[in-house]
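Review box. Two proteins, two foldings.
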Amino acid sequence: MPLKTFLFNRGIFTQIVRNVGWVSLIYFIGLLFALPIHIFMMSENKDWLMHHQTGRIFDIGSIIQFSLMFTLPILLAIFLFRYMQVKLSADYMHSLPIKREVLFLQHTVVGMIILIVPVAVIAVCLIMMKPFLPISLYSFKHVAIWFVSTVSMNLLLFSGAVFVGMLTGMSILQGMFTYILFFFPAGIFILLIFNLKYFLYGFAYEYYLSSSLNEIVPFIQALNWSTKQIQPLEILIYTVLTFMFYGLSIWLYKKRHIEMATDAIVFRPLRPVFTYGFTFCVMLVGGAYFGQMQQKMSWVIFGYVSSSLFGYIIARMILAKTWRVFSRWKEFVGYVVFMSIVGLLFTFDVFGYKTYQPSLNEIERAYFGDHIYFFENDEIDEENAFYYEKENIRNIYLFHQHLIEQRTYPVNDRRNVVIGYDLKNGERIVREYTVPTNLYNQFYKPIFNSIEFKKNHYPILRKTNFKDVLQIRIGSEDKVVRLQDRADIESFLAVLQQQLLHETFDETTINRSWGTISILYEKYEEQGIEWRKSYHLVEQWLQDRGLLQQARVTADDIAEIKIIKNTKQVPWYDWTPEMIEREKAKMVVHDKVKIEQCLQMAAWGEEDYILGIYYKNGRIDIQSFSKHFVPPFVH
């Protein structure tokens, strides 16, 4: 009997229930409307029943479920330990003849019960109402998974908020710091990656940002529960973290001084950590913002200096609870000096990152592309950009070597290039650069003209039979030809393969196309290939079968074409039919042969000549000519 009295105090229990029992009631009512009532309301809607016949209970009333899950456990922790943040209540509670660990244990256990009971009651309701539903939406296993997952997430957020409450003496900061705690790992990683690209030449920041950061943010991971299966490892990790937070919390609770109530950070050794940590994070945000907006190193430095100063002042104000903090500058000067040294270490490439290139003999395969996607998604049936042939690897290697040696380029007319290596020892190296288009094309041309590139870029070239092809659509805008006959499909794809194999790099540098060739496979997979105007084999195949008129625009569709020499170099996309009509010096073409020549050579993006293409149906299209590629009658 004395032991029970020692471990459980009825008066404390009654006070806790009176203070925070409403949280359990709100949680129960919210879940009641989100699940049982909502399910009964929608039980006559066949479409809704079919959509939710997956067993994923989180997909039902998900907005209410997740809103309650992400707020109530944290609010409960704030109100439950509110007595620590007010001096009078802190003095009173800790003057009672109850050990601190017992006081902490009773509050946390009651908090856990408040969170678990509503979930358990709703789980029982779901099981009891299951026989009365028109179809089986879920099983007992699904309810058990929902119960365990919800409870584990609730207790994780609750324990995290309790842990944060031990570190601060202000309830509002307890709530803010709790959310920061769970977003911090992913947030600081993203900020560091975004800022490293300004100091490390060739740093492929997109490669690191594309990793599954959502897996380390409980809020985002929980939102995925409505669409994907919950893994036991997730629940195990959340359980371990929950116990870790509770262990740290009770240790901090016993070390915490009562008189520190209302202080922003109650442990003095942690105050410099908060000050410089907050300053550092704000500095990274400012640097990333100005760098992204201006793309200049001078603006990045300005962002660092101004944001770090702002962050330092705000941190000092939070700790001192006053705006009179402008007398302590030595710490900030020390911070600036330290960060300047760190920045110089990266700028002068002390670690050899910028100039590192593996030996050519170490490379098993090389990657060369415009973006990082195919470096991470190397699917055999999809487009990819990995090269195994020695000549292509050598060309990629030489391009990379050139980029390392020459780092300064003009800012206009640039494009992205990603170079990566998979080494024979299993190591993976990736670099990302922004380079002038003419330099890129110089190294890209020999790679593009290789058979390996074309098989990488066009998956259709890797096929030896076309039995899984259901249909081919060839068309542009409102014209389309559909090939469904097996003989036509086989014949057309054989021609298309020959066309793609003979395609040259120069053909791709001008944006001239009729439309798209879409290949529809079994399982509703689709592959699109740009139908370039240089694909004469494809055009001849359509012409021989009398399908060309149905597949693309021809001279028969055009009433006239008006050609203007663009002496003022106005961008082609700024031209309007009204501007074309106002031009006096223009050539008007009505001859069908000449119109066909214009259609064959017309492109988008060129600015030497502007074409107004007037269709017989009243539509007007504006395209352009390059001065290096114009019909002979244009002067």
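Next protein.
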Amino acid sequence: MRRRGTLAFLAVFLMAVVVFMEKEEQYLIQREDSYMESLGFVLGSSSSEQTVACFTDQAEQVSYLFLPSYVEPGDVKISFAGAESVVFAGENGETTLRNGGDISALRCGESYDLYFCDRGGERLHRQKIVIMHSSGLPTVFLETESGSMKQLDADKSYAEKGRIVLLDVEGNVVCADKLDRISGRGNSTWAHPKKSYGIRLKNRADLFGMGSADNWILLSNVEDRSYIRNKITYDMGVAAGMAGSPQSQYIDLYINHRYHGMYQLCEKVEIDPERVPIADLEAQNKNLNRDIESCGRFETERKKGVVLPVEPPDLTGGYLLERDVAEKYREEISGFYTETLKELYTVKAPSYASEAQVDYISGLVNGMERAVTAGDGVDPQNGMHYSDYIDMRSFAQKYIVEELCKNNGAGATSSFFYKPDDTVSKKLFAGPVWDYDKAYANLDGINESTADLCYLMQRSTDPTTLFWHLNEHPEFRQAVSECYNEFFSDYMQTIQDELIDEYISEIYASKDMDLIRWKEIYGEAVDYEGEVQRIRDFLAARKPFLDAVWTDGQEICTVCFVSENGRIDNYVSVIKGTRMQGMPGSEPGTKDGDRVFDGWYTQDGVCFDGTVPVMEDIMVYERTHEVPVAD
């Protein structure tokens, strides 16, 4: 009897404690007015139950519930604290819900006044809320170990662990795994709040048929308001059979239970059986040198890398190189500076490259440059023709892709090359394709002109001249013509007739969610159809020009733009007798420091502004004048 009394007392006591804690929680929520922080939505209809919170536009004071495509409102249950019930008041009346109630009565796209109410029905807090629903896209739920993105978004070199769940459009679990690493990535895109990320799964997985791998990229596409420029080009590389071209899939990304935007899940450019399938010299280096990160470093004006105690027996491959710019080169462990064209290459793999390995691969690139820049295409040091150094087809394909879309950054960074071991090939290969958010007329000036060839030199800083020199040789021009007519000319038409419509149909609902989630970047009104039309117009004008040059063989004339310091800034070729659509560099009158750009002039002192038909190859020279600097 006494025992029963004790148990009854404990039960009453525990109930009292629970009631007290609930009231204390309600009191704290009421005092801090943190009702929205307590609000969550539990997503059913999947074996992996997930909870998401709202995103609040602080400027507009409107909250948004972004639902992934695999759930219907009837599968979503509300969770909140600090109130007895909530009321959604919309244009069609009011809906009252208690904890655990589903939101099937609510309409996506409609604006509601959300009220948190006490037991007596008194309305304690009001918040505007809109429900938006994705359609047709898989969903990625990512959780960081810290539960925060603050440090990850502040420091690109910082990484932490986490978890990932990936669901297909039906809510089936495609992958559920721990993450060994999450980190930020990107060049110019890193400056934006919506960032790209690299993730490494604990276990290799085949995501959407892209091949089993552990490293994956989440691309933000933040500088491309159409969201499709990278997708167009990656799929083009895959369709053309260009080795290592990244496959990709649009997804809705949720990080730490909050919608983070529409992303493009991509394969990483790396040496791997499912990516660039060549020998993994990095793995060999690490197997032979267990504490490789502690090895000493070497660096000279021409090269840098790691002092490895033990070398693999075969140094001929594989290598993955990236043509790079100075600021990025400084951050890398291994790389070299070429002798003839004065270009920087980082050795992406093996990233911990020994001096012998850097000497080997830089020797190959230097030999290629000597041959390419020779009038007869022959390396004067050893008699090798440039075609003995490079795989002609892969270089022609890479050039076509970059020229076709007028990719601004192609000749400076994110431009990859690889070398298998000698048992496979003794030549350098160009590719894989990567980074096209500034292509297809996404930038103005020479970048949006459709009736010229720029040879990957339209970027104003650190442009390559390699592809200009390659185009000086008839064998390369012939390879370009053949590759273009075999595949790319027809594929350009397919992009216009079919693929653009397919891409925008796939992402249409999700891009609306992304534009609202990242309104701080995109602004109030984005003319999405106008953004897409810009790509359509570019391709519609670009194809006839490329057909005329690479199919019909029309004669072209080249304008060489020479800076005041004697450096060649650009080669631009147009069909003989036509005018230039755009000019490289700044507009005349633009001030840079203590100098003002006057324009381009021929050797005879005649101003060249591109409005006169070009009838022959010419050289024009930069003119500036000094202006006094104010004290």
